[in-house]
Amino acid sequence: MTGGATSPVPADCVSAADYERHARARLPADVWAYVAGAGADGLTQRWNREAFDTRRLVGRVLADMRAASTQSTLFGAPLPYPILLAPVAHQKLVHPEGELAAALGASAASAWMTVSTLAGTSLEEIAKESGTTLWFQLYMQASREDTLALVRRAEAAGYRALMVTVDAPVNGVRNDEQRAGFRLPPHVRPVNIEGLPQPASRAGPGESPVFKGLLDGAPTWADIAWLRRETALPLLLKGIVSPADAERAIEAGVNGIVVSNHGGRSLDTLPASLHALEAVSERVKGRVPLLLDGGIRRGTDALKALALGASAVMVGQPVMHALAVAGPVGVAHLMTILRAEFEAAMALTGCATLADINRDVLWPTAWRANSSEAG
After folding, report:
1. pLDDT tens digits for 116-167?
2. Residues 297, 321 contacting (CB under 8 angstroms)
């Protein structure tokens, strides 16, 4: 798929990092600040990567891989491989077709996709054009009636699950965007919620808007319990890093949890997503599926996440990079790369199926501490 005369994929794009490099060179500085920007000082975003980079694998040899497979079942549906497209807002910032192009690429790569409430194309049109399993990411609206209207639209359009983002009742401090002067251009609009009332500041002179209007209507656990009663779709909460919140989510009847720190874009100095996964997994003990979001750039990252209790992982920023560089072909190519890397990592750690992936594939930290290796 790379290097051909008619391919939009640059010949040297062979990894997610290559797509990031090309996207940075092509996108305007303010758009790049939005796509790549971290919360505040970027510590959590950096820790997301460091957690994967510093966790070592145990290579195993001579395993019988003749019946090897990446397939599993998630919420009753066959999942070809455990790497999904995360919900990402405003994809028309990087490609004219936005989410439609991403859905086309995901479909070509047999990858499941989660569509954002803040998509630039209607959720119905995306579903109509898609050939893969779709989930709908839901931002709870100021009124339950408006929230339920979005849910009913997703149900009618054939979305297979609801994923409620719960860790961003207000935006994090995004200094990179502020410095770059980022503003959504007129052609990039959240069409699915146009006309719905949104929180507005009531702050007077010298007052912060955070507690003066921006949290009006922010969802609570009572709203999650209400939503659970209103839909039969599998319900996931995205943005859990606290084991105590994971426990409360299970008590509220959710079907799955996405361990996520919002890609390091929300509250800075939250723990790395991989570290939070380890803590949440120890508390949940397999009662509901866990997914991991934040920092995935390699197939080995997915393997490490599954070893620590995830059923699947989600990729967000890399999809935006691939979309910016090569449109739907880039998205399909990126997902194919990640799948191939994941399969190679399974083979080289002796794991023929996802059920074989456990903590035994991770090099014990005590061995590392007693070795002469630096870092």
Report:
1. 999 999 999 999 999 999 999 999 999 999 999 999 999 999 999 999 999 9
2. no
Question: Is the model's pLDDT at 226 over the cut of 90?
Answer: yes
Q: The tokens of 349 are what?
A: 């750690």
Helix (H) or strand (E) holding 336: helix 317-348
The catalytically annotated residue of 262, 275, 321, 333 is 262
Query: Could you give the dihedral angle defined by the CA atoms of residues 17, 18, 24 and 25, in that order, rounded to the nearest 10 degrees?
Result: 160
Active site residue 262: yes
d(CA 47, CA 275): 9
pLDDT of residue 203: 86
Angle at the Cα of 93 (from 121 to 136), degrees rounded to 5?
40
In this prediction the pTM is 0.95
Contact 112, 81 (CB under 8 A): no
Total residue count of the chain as it appears in this document: 375
Strands 235-240 and 256-260: parallel
